[in-house]
Specification:
Length: 277
């Protein structure tokens, strides 16, 4: 990756490329005091607003449960260094239940005394792809899981347990361990019921379908996040079903049948657990 010219006011140097994704280039840099930081340099792409809302979310959190936003310059962010160990890596060392417990204890789930930023994406807007797919299936007289999930999502959105700013893409590789402990990275900045933030955890890690399809794991995660959020286990599972089908709808739009079918299979497994409660 070509090294960008960082703003002088950031006083950073020794850039080391960390990753390049479809949305951004990531650099590890050294600050003036010798501590490490991350520079996230956004590329021009369709969903850049997602990343910018995430920047506003980080500014609002002020380091509570998430990395601190240290500086901004256009579409570049200077971020607190979150460490090298992801929650995915913890599964091999301490087991999946320990990883779930850590996720539930991240202060990201705690309330903030600061008023919410005004430009977060409403959760109903984020579900638009699911509602679109369900509408098409109804028109085709197909009673699909998309249709059922859209009905669940409509019920959850119409009667939220709580409304607060959300990370919007919380999963095992977006929770990192560093100098300040376990912190979330890469938020999208959404406004809605916090059950949505628990939902994506059921579908991760992406390479562990043995875990994601396991009814015992599904039940355990529902109980843990229900206790964390003051909701019922069935409500958490409803959020998980709705989220999984939303993710599948995104993959459907991208013509990615492999990942669409994976999400639907896990959503169906969660649905079976939900019906058993």
């Amino acid at each position: 990756m070509d090294v960008p010219a960082f703003p002088k006011r950031w006083k950073v140097g020794a850039p080391e490329p960390v990753a390049e994704t479809f949305s951004s280039r990531i650099w590890k840099v050294a600050r003036e005091d010798g501590s490490l930081a991350i520079v996230k340099d956004l590329k021009p792409f369709d969903d850049v607003e997602d990343e910018l809302r995430g920047e506003h979310f980080l500014a609002w959190r002020r380091g509570e449960g998430a990395v601190r936003l240290l500086g901004r310059d256009g579409h570049r962010m200077l971020l607190e260094y979150a460490g090298e160990t992801s929650l995915s890596q913890m599964i091999a060392d301490q087991g999946d239940n320990a990883a779930t417990a850590i996720a539930a204890e991240v202060k990201l789930f705690s309330r903030s005394k600061h008023p919410a930023p005004p430009d977060l994406q409403p959760l109903r807007t984020r579900f638009s792809s699911l509602f679109k797919k369900a509408k098409a299936d109804r028109a085709a007289d197909e009673r699909s899981l998309y249709v059922e999930a859209a009905e669940i999502a409509e019920r959850l959105l119409s009667n939220p347990h709580d409304m607060r700013p959300l990370h919007g893409d919380l999963h095992h590789d977006n929770i990192m361990h560093g100098p300040r402990g376990w912190l979330a990275i890469d938020p999208k900045g959404v406004l809605g019921d916090p059950g949505f933030d628990a939902a994506n955890m059921f579908y991760n890690p992406l390479d562990r379908d043995d875990l994601c399809l396991d009814p015992r794991r599904i039940t355990h995660m529902a109980q843990v996040f229900a206790a964390t959020l003051g909701q019922t286990a069935p409500a958490i599972l409803d959020h998980a079903i709705a989220y999984g089908c939303l993710s599948a709808a995104w993959h459907h739009e991208d013509r990615n049948a492999v990942d669409e079918n994976r999400e639907l299979a896990i959503a169906a497994a969660i649905r079976r657990v939900r019906l058993s409660l």
